[in-house]
Each structure stands twice: as C-alpha cells, then as structure tokens.
Specification:
Length: about 210
C-alpha cells in the first residue's frame, strides 16, 4: 500500500511525556485552488522535508477562508496579524503571514532548510563560523534571485501590458516579451546559478549553499 501524499498525512508529534513541549501547530497553506503558481515553492518545502500540511482550498474547505483573508474589507486576523494583499498566506498557529519570500524566510529555520542551525565549534576559522551563522541571509539571497528569474519575470511574459488583462488580450506583446526573456534574461539567471554551484559556498556543487538541501 502506498503512503498518502504528505499534504494529507496526519500531523505527528512523536511520543509525549509530562515534560514535553506542546505539539507543533499544523501548517495550513491558503492559495488559489488548482494553480501551482506562487504556492508551489511552499509546497516543495513541505514535501522535501516530509512535513505534514494542509493545502486548504484543495482539501475540502474551498475558497471561503482564503476569500476572507484577502477581502478588501479585512483588517487582519487577531491582534497582531495585518491584512493580506494577495495569496499565498501561511497559517501556523496564531500566525498568518503572506508574501512568498517572507513565507520561505519563515519556513527555512522551521523546517531545517536555513543552513547550519548553529555556528561551528570554536576551533574552526572565524570566517567559516561567521559564514554559517549568516547562512540564512545567503540562502535568502539565492531564493530571491530564483524567484525574480523563474517566477516574477516568467509571469511578466504572460502579462506584459497589464496584469488585469488576460493573456489572450495581449498575445503579440507577450510573444515579444517571451522572446526577450528566453534570449536575454534566462541565460543570465542560469549562468548566475552555475556560478553559485561552482562557488566555495556551495561546498561541492551539488547544492547551492552549504552542501545541503536549503
């Protein structure tokens, strides 16, 4: 029997004892149903780390919760969460945050994807200790560059005139923008990540940073 997808697995917290900390709140992702889009990098983080989560609009709750979170009349959730402009929105306990880079920055340490959790032992060189302590910022730099090159600029090839217009309403301009992206922009981003893999910070060339999945 095959295991169910991670997004449908029950949240497990391991054995409990009187001295254990409270169970970790479940992760809930609010994004457009049936659309990979900007929700996909978040799903990949959960799937890569086998972290249970609920893809809310795709798991029986429909659009009602997402619609309320991004409603023009919403003033936020609870006392500390401001309103959201657009999805994705991540719900984790009492915390509601939006904006894809912001969500990834939050999930990195939570899921063990932010590089070394602690600086190395004192006997290691100071430069290496400082690099490991700052790994999350270097990983965020790489993530933001990837989102620029492979998400934001790709989206703009489909909506080069106006985001409010359908792709079908701007096909000639979209074709021009797509050609420019493929010939002028995409090669630059691919070359950048080749350099990142070849850099000492990659630690071997298999991963972009620190010799591990981030």
């Amino acid at each position: 029997m095959t295991a169910p997808p991670t997004s449908q697995r029950p949240l497990t917290t391991g054995p409990s004892s009187p001295s254990t900390t409270p169970p970790t709140p479940p992760y809930r992702l609010h994004y457009w149903p049936g659309v990979p889009g900007r929700g996909e990098p978040i799903r990949l983080c959960f799937e890569a780390t086998q972290t249970p989560y609920t893809d809310v609009p795709n798991r029986g709750e429909g659009m009602s919760t997402l619609a309320s979170l991004i409603s023009p009349t919403s003033t936020g959730t609870g006392a500390t969460n401001p309103p959201h402009f657009a999805p994705p929105v991540l719900e984790h306990g009492d915390l509601f945050i939006s904006q894809l880079p912001n969500i990834l920055l939050y999930l990195g340490p939570q899921l063990g994807l932010a590089g070394a959790a602690q600086p190395p032992p004192p006997q290691q060189e100071a430069e290496v200790r400082e690099g490991n302590a700052n790994a999350i910022y270097h990983i965020n730099q790489l993530a933001l560059t990837a989102l620029d090159g492979f998400v934001n600029e790709v989206h703009e090839t489909h909506h080069p005139i106006a985001v409010s217009l359908y792709y079908e309403d701007q096909i000639p301009a979209a074709k021009t923008r797509a050609r420019d992206y493929l010939t002028a922009r995409l090669p630059k981003f691919l070359a950048y990540f080749e350099r990142a893999l070849a850099s000492p910070a990659s630690q071997g060339g298999e991963y972009l940073h620190g010799g591990r999945l981030t």
